[in-house]
Amino acid sequence: MKIVACYSNKGGVGKTATSVNIAHGLAKTGKRVLLCDLDPQGASGFYFRVKPSKKLTEDRFFTDVKRFTDAIRGSDFENLDILPANMAFRDFDVFLSRMKNSRSRLKKALASVDGDYDVILLDCPPNISVLSESVFKTADAILVPVIPTTLSERTFEQLLEFFAERDLPKKKILGFFSMVQGTKKLHAETAAAMRAAHPKRILDISVPFATDIEKMGVHRAPVAAFAPGSPAVAAYDALCGALAGRL
Ligand SMILES: Nc1ncnc2c1ncn2[C@@H]1O[C@H](COP(=O)(O)OP(=O)(O)O)[C@@H](O)[C@H]1O
Ligand SMILES: [Mg+2]
């Protein structure tokens, strides 16, 4: 079982859009996938029309295997299950910071479904916290959507610095460009500069800015389910391919 996180310390960059579409894309190729939503806003579950379990509180997530597995829901798609988030997940950090070995707790919780899934995708909330440190430790790969603008570049650098300071394995970090607008000179220039600065940390994949992705909220489904010919689907499939090659 491999664990892939969609993470950025910045909000609104496409973590959830990526999690949802990659989860669907990997399941399409026959992998058994669990999409685990760690963001209390619960957007991933919303996109898959899955209601959250109120019984899975922040403490039980990490300590009660039965409650954890009972909270997993099927989706409308073959090979794809969802663990929807609920508002209690906003207290993950408070709970984890009180626990011994807090950074290995997430790995332990996910190990309870080892054997049932080939890939677990983690849709992460946007911060650097005890929870994100657990994610960094647990994930085999960390997909980081980067909008090619100055602020996002800075956020990506901050993440790399954090990994360097904590002696975390940078090779887990796989950046890619998100919401790319071909007409914007700044996007092209920033992307080129970032690729040159971090050739090993940034995949040669760009998810375009696409109205079809925004429409996921209306259809409540991954893009491939209602607009299979969208360039966004090709980009997400390329991301799935890159991931499969690395894991
Ligand atoms: N490639 C894209 N093109 C157009 N809109 C996008 C794209 N990716 C995400 N969005 C939209 O931007 C908003 C934030 O995306 P989301 O995936 O929820 O970000 P995050 O999870 O990082 O906060 C959502 O409304 C989503 O529909
Ligand atoms: Mg999100």
**How many distinct beta strands?**
8
- List the domain count as a whole number: 1
Arithmetic mean pLDDT: 96
The end-to-end distance, rounded to whole angstroms, is 10 Å
Helix content: 40-55%
Protein name: ParA family protein
Domain AAA: 1-164
Organism: Mangrovicoccus algicola
Short description:
Helices cover 46% and strands 17% of the residues. The protein is of the alpha/beta class and 247 residues long.
Describe the structure.
This is ParA family protein. Residues 1-164 form the AAA domain. The chain is built from 13 helices and 8 strands. The chain has 247 residues and is of the alpha/beta class. It has one domain (2-144, 211-240): Rossmann fold, CATH 3.40.50. An 8-stranded mixed sheet has the order 3-4-2-5-1-6-7-8, sandwiched between helices. It binds adenosine-5'-diphosphate (ADP) and magnesium ion. Adenosine-5'-diphosphate is lined by residues 11-17, 43, 178-179, 207, 209-210, 213-214, 216.
Main attributes of the structure:
binds adenosine-5'-diphosphate, 8 strands, ParA family protein, P-loop_NTPase, alpha/beta, 13 helices
Q: How would the blueprint of this fold be written?
A:
Layout: E1 2-6, H1 15-28, E2 33-37, H2 43-47, H3 58-63, H4 65-70, E3 73-74, E4 80-83, H5 92-98, H6 102-111, E5 119-123, H7 130-138, E6 141-146, H8 150-165, E7 173-180, H9 185-197, E8 202-208, H10 211-214, H11 216-219, H12 223-226, H13 231-246
Parallel strand pairs: 1-5, 1-6, 2-4, 2-5, 6-7, 7-8
Antiparallel strand pairs: 3-4
Helix pairs in contact: 1-13, 6-7
The structure holds adenosine-5'-diphosphate and magnesium ion.
Adenosine-5'-diphosphate (ADP) is lined by residues 11-17, 43, 178-179, 207, 209-210, 213-214, 216.
